[in-house]
Specification:
The chain has one domain. The chain is about 15% helix and about 30% strand. It contains five helices and 18 strands. The strands form three sheets. Strands 1, 2, 5, 7, 8, 9, 10 and 11 form an eight-stranded mixed sheet that branches. Strands 3, 4, 6, 12, 13, 15, 16 and 17 form an eight-stranded mixed sheet that branches. Helix 1 packs across helix 4. It is globular. The N terminus is likely disordered.
């Protein structure tokens, strides 16, 4: 069965949060605001030959300021994810890589995985599927089993409920999604400077075949506009404006995508787990040690093109009206070809 994942991050944080992948909820007794100053994600996608076989690694990093002692971060997923920590350096290396490419002419407590008690507790319509410690976070994966239960669960956990949110929460419940909960409690903030929490990696099945998933509808519950920066790794280029399934029609623009030089094998991707042996990446290999180790660990020998896309000052109310979250698709040469997951019954079939 599909599950819906709510991610709750409890930090000793300090102002309002503008998440491009979810919604920040302050503590129940907090009168101020929280602010996420920047949000980035790394998406590594492996397509499936059949529906339900596609897998994705989503690595999220947020920068938060404010004065609250904790907050809740609510993120939906198509299926229950596995959660692990990742190195913040990943984002620095990829930022530097894109900068270099675009300058050139071109065509806490406990150990990771420690289980926590009461993993199968069921409280008033919310079932806790699992609890684990991942780096500085306490993580829980929960399933809402009746309408309104998630908000009650948040209040029981000491956080404010999500106002005027039952339509969005109900949207995910009907789709069979899950909600993940992540608590962070050992970060000391400087009131005047944002703090970057260490990134989290969520590994999950998308429920589809060729659609790359990034959650955004929950962001429509906030009031402030927000920016998104995505580093997407896939074995082909992504559809930009080929037809209505292209990402430019969601307000995103291309910053960079890898290409094939005369020395490259055409349409074969790049060897990110062995960049010194890749004719396209070899001159950059020394700048990518953390990224290289990530691919050596997760996907050794697999080949990907990196596409960096960005969106600036997205309007939350407009995003809330989207018929679905952000789904990215391969660049099918035939403009009339409908991506498998965008077809009736597919994982992304109800997108605009």
């Amino acid at each position: 069965m599909r599950t819906c994942v709510l991610t709750v991050l409890c930090l000793a944080l300090t102002v309002p949060a503008a998440l491009a992948d979810g919604k920040i909820v302050p503590p129940r007794d907090y009168k101020g605001s929280l602010e996420e100053r920047a949000q980035e994600a790394i998406l590594i996608f492996n397509a499936g030959d059949k529906p339900g076989e596609a897998t994705e690694d989503m690595i999220l990093k947020i920068s938060v300021t404010g004065e609250a002692g904790s907050f809740a971060w609510v993120i939906p997923f198509p299926t229950q994810p596995k959660i692990a920590k990742e190195a913040p350096r990943l984002f620095k290396e990829l930022f530097d890589y894109v900068q270099a490419r675009t300058r050139r002419p071109s065509k806490k407590k406990g150990s990771d995985g420690e289980k926590l008690a009461a993993a199968d507790a069921k409280l008033d319509g919310v079932k806790v599927l699992s609890r684990r410690i991942v780096g500085t976070y306490e993580t829980a994966v929960v399933r809402e089993e009746k309408a309104g239960a998630l908000n009650e669960w948040l209040k029981r956990e000491g956080f404010q409920s999500l106002p005027d949110a039952e339509d969005v929460i109900g949207y995910y419940q009907k789709k069979g999604y899950v909600f993940a909960c992540i608590k962070v409690s050992d970060t000391v903030l400087n009131k005047d400077e944002p703090i970057d929490s260490h990134p989290l990696r969520f590994t999950f099945k998308t429920g589809g075949r060729d659609g790359i998933y990034f959650p955004m509808k929950m962001t429509g519950l906030q009031s402030a506009s927000f920016d998104v920066n995505l580093y997407v790794f896939y074995g082909a280029w992504l559809n930009d404006k080929l037809n209505k399934h292209g990402y430019v029609h969601r307000g995103f623009r291309l910053r960079h995508r890898d290409w094939d030089t005369a020395k490259c094998e055409a349409n074969a991707g790049k060897s990110w787990s062995a960049p010194r042996h890749d004719p396209y990446l070899q001159d950059m290999a020394g700048r990518l040690p953390t990224v290289t180790r990530l691919f050596q660990t997760l996907h050794p020998g697999e080949r990907y093109y990196l596409t960096n896309i960005q969106a600036a000052r997205l309007n939350p109310e407009q995003v809330r009206q989207w018929s679905n979250d952000l789904w990215l698709f391969p660049y099918y040469v035939n403009r009339e070809f409908v991506p498998y997951d965008a077809r009736t019954g597919g994982a992304a079939s109800d997108r605009m």
